[in-house]
Write a sequence for this structure.
């Protein structure tokens, strides 16, 4: 989530500010972040711990075990390439995937309180595991349609000075959503799923107006 916010924020201010001001704003934000880490002890301890894990190559620890969910989803896709494990069956299939991967020497995150993952912590990978390669092709087709709609919508908004800010916000929000879809479970939670769907609907609505 923090990565999505950071990516979206950087793109937003890069679009809205002149390059020199954007660089100064980024430097100021970095300074504020460093100061916050230095001032808040729990935050400082977490950053130091994550940095140490990264230096040691403990990527799964840095990701707090999310790599377990991604590996299991990829294993399921390889085992069931055509039909997948079935819609909503990721949770039931995780135990078998974990056992199979453990037998191959894959080390799982040791600090999880539960031995299973309720979801794959990636909409893309979990959907691929659920639907197989035909589902992957369908997702790629849907993503291509959304990208084309986004380009048409941005072209329409940028045609007027007043629309440039709206275009920047729309582009930044789309990037943030893309990062979230790849790394977390956006559409499993209504609180974030509905705004995400509204964003996609806005892209298609603006694209249709541009086309008309």
């Amino acid at each position: 989530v923090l990565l999505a916010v950071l990516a979206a924020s950087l793109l937003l201010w890069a679009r809205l500010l002149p390059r020199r001001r954007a660089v100064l704003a980024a430097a100021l934000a970095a300074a504020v972040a460093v100061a916050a880490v230095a001032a808040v002890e729990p935050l400082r301890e977490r950053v130091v711990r994550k940095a140490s894990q990264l230096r040691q190559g403990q990527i799964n620890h840095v990701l707090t075990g999310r790599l377990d969910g991604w590996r299991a989803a990829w294993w399921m896709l390889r085992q069931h390439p055509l039909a997948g494990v079935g819609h909503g069956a990721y949770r039931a299939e995780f135990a078998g995937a974990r056992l199979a991967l453990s037998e191959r020497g894959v080390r799982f995150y040791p600090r999880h309180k539960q031995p299973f993952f309720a979801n794959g912590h990636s909409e893309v990978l979990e959907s691929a595991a659920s639907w197989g390669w035909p589902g992957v092709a369908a997702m790629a087709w849907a993503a291509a349609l959304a990208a084309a709609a986004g380009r048409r919508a941005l072209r329409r908004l940028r045609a007027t000075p007043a629309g440039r800010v709206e275009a920047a916000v729309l582009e930044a929000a789309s990037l943030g959503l893309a990062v979230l879809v790849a790394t977390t479970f956006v559409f499993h939670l209504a609180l974030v799923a509905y705004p995400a769907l509204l964003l996609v609907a806005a892209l298609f609505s603006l694209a249709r107006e541009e086309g008309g």
Remarks:
- The chain has nine helices and no strands.
